[in-house]
Write a sequence for this structure.
């Protein structure tokens, strides 16, 4: 979740997917414009600005106002293009090509897989301060959060934050905290009704929002560079475990980037504490000593394969289509 960023959803895929997410091997173009006043263009140029693509099949080239910006290979991976300082008063044009012609260096090469073309996931226009968490790290938010079981009921949370400085040399502080969620995340209720859940949403939160661990670290970041800062929240004792469909309890991790007391950028994500292993001993899978174990108990894994079955959409599915497949 972006906190101190301005994010616009360009929704290119919803307008063009039916025409361009095709099996035909060709190059398809997407175009979108944004019109700005002199003041608005200057405000955009005073920040760092990125176009983030959830996925484009299979190769993408990004242009801004006729200037080539970036190129990406791979039809299932996210990426960002840096368009900072390129805004003008009047009409600004974004143009993206989606190329699914044969390329022996890109999977899939064989079988009955469609090499569909098109912008098939969300596109975002993101405005952040000049000093920010790195949005150019393979389409990520530039923050990596990893819970680790130390032993018994003791845990730590490792955090890596990549800080990009598009301004002058500056000392910054990274501050991180893990807290209980004050309420259950109802963002998908429209697609996944509560009546279908195997748990009570009221049991998946703590109104106190109590913090279970926090830490901070400082660093001097030269202008025009990107640095990785590592932190660790230690001695987290007996957190409530993420325990499958019956009790998928999640905490909220918040990581902030500060200059003095000013929060320049921030990122929040849900995390779960759980440990697991796959065991294969003598005997069959039905043997209770074999299989997948979650939090120390045997836990059968069941899944499904989602294919590109919606007419005219290919893999450009929304949550509405995914929910329809699940609850059908």
């Amino acid at each position: 979740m972006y906190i101190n960023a301005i994010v616009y959803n360009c929704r290119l895929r919803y307008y063009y997917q039916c025409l361009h997410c095709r099996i035909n091997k060709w190059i398809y173009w997407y175009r979108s414009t944004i019109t700005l006043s002199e003041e608005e263009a200057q405000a955009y140029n005073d920040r760092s600005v990125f176009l983030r693509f959830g996925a484009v099949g299979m190769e993408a080239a990004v242009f801004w106002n006729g200037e080539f910006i970036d190129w990406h290979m791979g039809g299932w991976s996210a990426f960002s293009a840096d368009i900072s300082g390129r805004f003008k008063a009047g009409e600004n044009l974004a143009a993206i090509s989606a190329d699914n012609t044969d390329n022996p260096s890109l999977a899939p090469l064989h079988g009955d897989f469609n090499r569909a073309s098109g912008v098939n996931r969300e596109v975002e226009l993101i405005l952040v301060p000049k000093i920010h968490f790195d949005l150019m790290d393979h389409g990520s938010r530039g923050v990596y959060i990893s819970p680790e079981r130390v032993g018994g009921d003791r845990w730590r949370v490792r955090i890596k934050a990549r800080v990009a400085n598009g301004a002058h040399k500056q000392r910054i502080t990274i501050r991180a905290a893990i807290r209980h969620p004050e309420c259950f995340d109802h963002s998908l209720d429209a697609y996944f009704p509560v009546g279908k859940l195997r748990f009570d949403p009221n049991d998946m939160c703590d109104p106190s929002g109590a913090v279970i661990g926090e830490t901070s670290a400082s660093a001097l970041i030269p202008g025009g560079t990107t640095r990785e800062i590592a932190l660790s929240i230690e001695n987290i004792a007996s957190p409530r475990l993420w325990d499958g469909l019956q009790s998928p309890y999640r905490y909220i991790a918040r990581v902030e980037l500060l200059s003095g007391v000013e929060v320049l950028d921030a990122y929040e994500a849900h995390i779960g504490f759980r440990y697991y292993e796959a065991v294969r001993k003598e005997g069959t899978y039905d043997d209770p000593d074999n299989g997948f174990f979650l939090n120390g108990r045997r836990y059968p894994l069941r899944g499904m394969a989602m294919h590109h079955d919606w007419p005219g959409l290919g893999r450009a599915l929304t949550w509405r289509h995914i929910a329809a497949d699940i609850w059908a």
Notes: Helices lie at 12-20, 38-45, 319-327. DSSP finds three helices and 23 strands in the chain. Residues 131 and 165 are 4 Å apart (CA to CA). Residues 276-327 form one domain.
